[in-house]
Amino acid sequence: MKTKQLKTTAKIATLFVALSASIAWITTSATKGGSPKVAIEELTKHQWTIAEYKETIFDTVRNLTLAMTPCDRDQVLKYENDKTYKIVDKCANVQEVKGQGKWSYVESDNMISEKFASGATIYKKILNLDEGLLRIEYEGEAKKKITITYLSEVGKQDDSRADQYVDNSDPSSIIMQMIREEIVGMDKYMLVGLSDFVNGVDVKSASKKIVVAPLVNMTDPNKIKNYDPKGVENKLVEMGEKAKVDYIVTGVVASLERSTGPDKRPLAHIRYTVKVINVKKGKVIRKEDFAFPGESKSEKSARVWGNVLGGIAAAGAYSPYVPYYGYGHGYYWAGNTSRSLSGLYYSGYAARSAAHAAGNAYYSYSVFSRGVKAEERNNYFASSLSVMESIEMTQEDLHKFLDKSVPLMR
């Protein structure tokens, strides 16, 4: 498949140059002897940052991570041994405490109660907790069910957890989940989780076993320092042999450019590679490049992108706000029609007035910082949405690639 060479914001001189080290999730996770013990004491040992933020309204699950700015994602939640907690917001010029109070734990219900300084209390159910990951659930305003997945400083260095949540602001995560969804639809294959894979667990199955490893995001300097393609493949094969996996699907996000299209709206250019490794043969058996916009997709992309944004345009001017049930405050739109991201959904954004926020504990507790100006958030959100859209436009070709790979995976 021919693709046009795209510009990249992170200048990569030569993508496949042999460097000295492998990707972090392989070098750190593979050395672990087993899963860490799930215990409440892990809560106070770490500081927690958000990996995924979801709302459930009735039966609709909405992943709102896309609407969070980088500084939203950097805010820190810390539980102390003296039963106090603090949320530090890093979006302002100086770090500020956006929430604090006292916490307690009810072991019989596996529940944390957090009492604000104002007197309001939120009760959180712990769904998962270990040294790297914390997932909690609680009831937000308007009866929304809020589910937040946090990573500790340990979890942020361990990408073997990448299949336990969907970060739809990260192109690697979106593509990885798209691949996983495609494989789930192949009845003859067993999808093995990353945790079992890196720990060498042989998941018994009569079907061929496949693992989807995180794509190496070459556009994110915080994710990777050095990349040795052959070294990574060899390490994956070694791990696959230990876990008795038959095939490994992985790849590289080579470039990502955020720009503006002819219609003056955000347009993202992305280029990535997906490859299938046969563990028994110890080599790549299929490999293909994907890109958007592609040489034959410019007209299609303009038409689809225009239709998507048309539903949220107001008076001819682009705005990511849409009214919600007739109330005055705005809600973010964050849409995607692929199976992997579960259709269209809305994202609640707590950018209410200071008076409104001060009068409602849930608004004050929002993961969305009030230190971000509306225009800044609008621009970031629109740009991020264009990245999601660009990846979705490659899904048809990705499906064809995986479908053609099936005869080789026998």
Topology:
Layout: H1 24-29, H2 42-45, E1 47-57, E2 60-63, H3 70-74, E3 76-79, E4 84-89, E5 96-106, E6 111-116, E7 121-129, E8 133-139, E9 145-151, H4 171-184, E10 189-192, H5 194-198, E11 208-212, E12 216-217, H6 229-242, E13 247-260, E14 266-278, E15 283-292, H7 298-310, E16 313-314, E17 317-318, E18 321-324, E19 327-333, E20 346-348, H8 354-358, H9 361-364, H10 374-392, H11 395-405
Parallel strand pairs: 10-11, 11-13, 12-13
Antiparallel strand pairs: 1-2, 1-3, 1-9, 3-4, 4-5, 5-6, 6-7, 7-8, 8-9, 13-14, 14-15, 16-17, 18-19, 19-20
Structural summary, described in words:
Strand 18 and strand 19 (327-333) form a beta hairpin. Helix 4 (171-184) crosses helix 11. Among the domains are: 1-24 and 168-290 and 393-410, no CATH class; 301-389, no CATH class. The protein has 410 residues and is of the alpha+beta class. The chain has an eight-stranded antiparallel beta barrel. It contains eleven helices and 20 strands. The protein has helices at residues 24-29, 42-45, 70-74, 171-184, 194-198, 229-242, 298-310, 354-358, 361-364, 374-392, 395-405, and strands at residues 47-57, 60-63, 76-79, 84-89, 96-106, 111-116, 121-129, 133-139, 145-151, 189-192, 208-212, 216-217, 247-260, 266-278, 283-292, 313-314, 317-318, 321-324, 327-333, 346-348. 38% of the residues are buried.
